């Protein structure tokens, strides 16, 4: 049965509006787009798109004096909007969203740029801004056309969610187009996610990581592992199907357990030889087939540092895009102070040792990796990483006189 177009284009008003939150209707909307290809294709026409090129997201980097709108023009031939004084971002504006007006050929639009400030490498303490560029499909279509792409490319977008403004959000990899030409037309730069991830605003980083993970999964799962035949994706990109074997494939994450071990007054951190100088993190490892999280956690700590942990408690979790999609489950655990002698397996870790609260407090204050020539300093994974959360939680509990779990 045909549904009215109005319902297809935006999250339906819940019939029980009084008890159904915006969050609930957005989640149901996304769920329906994953189930219904026609609804998803219609939502795409009205949606927002994050662009990638060969899995690198399109970002805009600028400094506080010259923050400028991107070159979004209906024809792609108009000059870019010039920086205007009201677009300048002062120091105190950092970490906020900026509503910026710009003109297309036919109308004035407002686009929200969210920005995160990061320390520049120079000595003058100026700042860089980094923001994800988001396009409305209606703006992107003419740009893609100018770049010689037919309309079929847009259909390769994958659904990643729904904005709080009730617009379906998609990611699209334009790796088949010339990178420099896309950057020029769109007014941004494709930045390797490893470089970009920690410089994006809190809410943007996981969204971009999710988009990249989904795009990567599609690029590496084009064929059925049973029959070798090509698989077909649904419109949302939430699964692929092999009609020869009737197998449905869903995107996968690898479960990883990460644990901060405490002996009551100190916490245990380790570093791999491949880590940058001075970086220490909580112990982590992939779960083996058939293991519970608790079993994986106990095994990893035993293997890596030769300790037996107890009192395991859950903290939080996160999707982690590096090197591929991991599902990180973060826990605290303890050992008795009388059984805290570390015996490092050097095939896994370069070093592991206990850190006092004072050392952790100092390390948490290091906000950027030391630069070449700086004095050696101990630093920790940045706030986007769940390891940082574990360490911060532990430090907070220590300061309030309570140990971890
Ligand atoms: N978000 C965070 O705060 C942190 C995340 N991590 C992540 O945790 C993960 C595990 O950390 P490490 O053990 O230190 O990593 P690792 O990269 O040293 O992996 C250890 C070994 O696990 C095996 N392995 C790789 N992929 C696997 C998979 N999908 N399933 C099973 N085994 C696999 C390989 O033999 C690899 O040598 C890594 O992806 C790392 O990036 C690690 C520390 C902090």
How are helices and strands ordered from N to C?
Answer: HHHEEEEEEEHEEHEHHEEEEEEHEEEHH
Helix content: 10-25%
Q: Tell me the overall shape.
A: globular
Please outline the major beta sheet.
8 strands, mixed
Point out poorly predicted stretches. Answer: 1-9, 14-18, 64-127
Calculate the mean pLDDT score and round it: 82
Could you give the count of β-strands?
Answer: 19
Strand content: 25-35%
How many domains, in number, for the residues? 3
Organism: Amphiprion percula (Orange clownfish)
Biased composition (Low complexity): 89-103
InterPro entries: NADH_PPase-like_N, NudC-like_C, NUDIX_hydrolase-like_dom_sf, NUDIX_hydrolase_CS, NUDIX_hydrolase_dom, Znr_NADH_PPase
Catalytic activity: NAD(+) + H2O = beta-nicotinamide D-ribonucleotide + AMP + 2 H(+); NADPH + H2O = reduced beta-nicotinamide D-ribonucleotide + adenosine 2',5'-bisphosphate + 2 H(+); NADH + H2O = reduced beta-nicotinamide D-ribonucleotide + AMP + 2 H(+)
Architecture blueprint of SSEs:
Layout: H1 5-9, H2 22-35, H3 37-45, E1 48-53, E2 56-63, E3 97-103, E4 108-114, E5 116-119, E6 127-132, E7 134-136, H4 137-146, E8 158-162, E9 168-173, H5 179-186, E10 189-190, H6 193-196, H7 204-219, E11 232-233, E12 240-242, E13 247-249, E14 254-262, E15 266-271, E16 283-286, H8 293-305, E17 310-320, E18 326-334, E19 351-356, H9 357-364, H10 386-399
Parallel strand pairs: 1-9, 14-18
Antiparallel strand pairs: 1-2, 1-7, 2-6, 2-10, 3-4, 5-6, 8-9, 11-12, 12-13, 14-15, 14-16, 15-19, 17-18
Helix pairs in contact: 2-3, 9-10
The site of 1,4-dihydronicotinamide adenine dinucleotide (NAI) has 15 residues, from strand 14, strand 16, strand 18 and helix 10.
EC number: 3.6.1.22
Organism: Amphiprion percula (Orange clownfish)
Pfam family, one: NUDIX
């Amino acid at each position: 049965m045909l549904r009215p177009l109005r319902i297809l284009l935006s999250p339906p008003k819940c019939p029980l509006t009084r008890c159904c939150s915006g969050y609930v209707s957005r989640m149901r909307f996304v769920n329906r787009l994953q189930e219904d290809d026609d609804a998803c294709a219609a939502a795409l026409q009205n949606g927002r798109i994050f662009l990638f090129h060969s899995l690198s997201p399109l970002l805009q980097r600028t400094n506080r004096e010259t923050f400028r709108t991107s070159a979004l023009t209906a024809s792609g031939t108009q000059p870019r909007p010039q920086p205007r004084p009201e677009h300048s971002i002062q120091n105190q504006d950092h970490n906020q969203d900026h509503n910026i007006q710009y003109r297309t050929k036919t109308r004035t639009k407002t686009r929200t740029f969210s920005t995160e400030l990061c320390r520049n490498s120079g000595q003058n303490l100026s700042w860089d801004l980094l923001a994800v560029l988001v396009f409305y499909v209606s703006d992107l279509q003419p740009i893609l056309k100018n770049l010689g792409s037919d309309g079929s490319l847009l259909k390769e977008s994958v659904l990643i969610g729904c904005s709080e403004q009730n617009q379906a959000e998609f990611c699209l990899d334009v790796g088949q187009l010339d990178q420099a030409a896309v950057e020029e037309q769109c007014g941004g730069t494709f930045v390797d996610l490893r470089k970009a991830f920690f410089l994006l605003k809190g809410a943007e980083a996981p969204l971009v990581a999710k988009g990249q993970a989904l795009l990567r999964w599609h690029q590496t799962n084009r064929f059925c592992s049973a029959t070798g035949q090509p698989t077909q994706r649904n419109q949302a990109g939430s699964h692929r199907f092999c009609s020869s074997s009737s197998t449905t494939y869903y995107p996968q994450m690898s479960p990883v357990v990460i644990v901060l071990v405490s002996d009551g007054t100190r916490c245990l951190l380790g570093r791999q030889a491949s880590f940058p100088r001075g970086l220490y993190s909580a112990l982590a490892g992939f779960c083996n087939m058939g293991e519970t999280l608790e079993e994986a956690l106990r095994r990893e700590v035993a293997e890596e540092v030769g300790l037996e942990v107890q009192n395991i408690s859950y903290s939080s979790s996160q999707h982690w895009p590096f090197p591929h999609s991991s599902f990180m489950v973060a826990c605290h655990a303890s050992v008795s102070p009388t059984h805290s002698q570390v015996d490092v397996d050097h095939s896994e870790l370069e070093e592991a040792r206990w850190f006092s609260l004072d050392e952790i407090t100092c390390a948490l204050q290091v906000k950027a990796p030391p630069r070449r020539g700086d004095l050696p300093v101990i630093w920790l994974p940045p706030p986007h990483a769940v390891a940082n959360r574990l360490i911060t939680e532990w430090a907070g509990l220590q300061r309030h006189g309570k140990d971890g779990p």
